[in-house]
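in:
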């Protein structure tokens, strides 16, 4: 009997072939080399921006600011002029409001000029372009002032996808934890209601007063830099104890305790803002932010002194 008829009329043969293929596939999937290749393909770090940093735009004094345009090139064909220019303005880049330069182009139909000068026409159009940009910045600033924010990036757990594990797996090969976990002290099993730290847990930092050390994290830029005349909005800080409970803090501006921060930005100056917090046990922590207003004035060298000229009694030197 030909082999193909034997396969056709015997169901056991396809079943055996299928089992062989599945077995090969299982061995293939279990191969360490394949595991490494798949793991390398899924270990990409995925992030998502949850909020942008709008502090620069919110604090910008738009009364003394205007966008600027620089014409970078002019070309033409039979029907059109093409005017290329760069626009210096404030916009979002990398989720942060900042000074940027955008390249743009204007297309001018020659018939539309009707004998008018190209330079005069382009000047009129670009002045209007600056005006529209300024209106947009003012409107956007008013909207952003309602919610001052810093750039916040969330990390996705993309590194878990495609991982192989079995009953002997303790850690995922190549996986980097997104959250750095700290093992807290385990309660004691004795009846004295006391607690003793786990043998695997790192000891909490202790102070002389017996409490745990708090921390202060400054929000926003440090140092913060402002142009003369810009308004300053302080984003404050976050104070926490060693187990993550949020604490209050006291603010000092240039060494003086204040309830709110008001800076004179009319002249050049360097200011210090200090945030001090105290934990339950009495231990303290602090952090200091520098705020630089403007640029230092140029140093004018002292004029060289002119030595006095002495004369003798007979009028000769």
């Amino acid at each position: 009997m030909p082999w193909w008829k034997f396969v056709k009329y015997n169901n056991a043969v396809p079943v055996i072939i299928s089992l062989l293929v599945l077995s090969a596939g299982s061995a293939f999937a279990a191969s360490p080399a394949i595991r490494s290749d798949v793991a390398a393909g899924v270990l990409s770090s995925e992030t998502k921006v949850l909020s942008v940093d709008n502090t620069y735009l919110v604090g910008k004094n738009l009364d003394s600011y205007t966008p600027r345009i620089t014409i970078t090139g002019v070309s033409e064909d039979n029907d059109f002029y093409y005017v290329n220019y760069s626009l210096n303005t404030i916009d979002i880049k990398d989720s942060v409001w900042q000074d940027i330069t955008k390249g743009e182009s204007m297309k001018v139909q020659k018939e539309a000029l009707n004998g008018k000068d190209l330079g005069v026409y382009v000047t009129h159009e670009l002045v209007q372009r600056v005006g529209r940009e300024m209106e947009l910045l003012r409107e956007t600033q008013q909207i952003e002032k309602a919610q001052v924010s810093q750039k916040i990036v969330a990390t996705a757990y993309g590194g878990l996808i495609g991982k192989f594990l079995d009953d002997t797996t303790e850690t995922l090969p190549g996986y980097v934890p997104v959250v750095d976990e700290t093992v807290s002290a385990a309660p004691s099993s004795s009846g004295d209601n006391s607690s003793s730290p786990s043998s695997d847990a790192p000891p909490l930092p202790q102070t002389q007063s017996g409490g745990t050390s708090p921390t202060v994290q400054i929000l926003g830029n440090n140092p913060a830099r402002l142009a003369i005349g810009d308004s300053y909005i302080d984003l404050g800080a976050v104070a926490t104890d060693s187990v993550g409970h949020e604490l209050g803090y006291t603010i000092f501006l240039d060494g003086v305790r204040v309830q709110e921060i008001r800076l004179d930005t009319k002249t050049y100056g360097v200011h210090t803002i200090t945030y001090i917090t105290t934990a339950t046990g009495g231990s303290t922590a602090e952090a200091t932010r520098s705020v630089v207003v403007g640029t230092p004035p140029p140093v004018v060298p002292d004029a060289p002194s002119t030595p006095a000229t002495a004369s003798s009694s007979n009028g000769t030197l």
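note: The CA atoms of residues 28 and 46 lie 29 Å apart.
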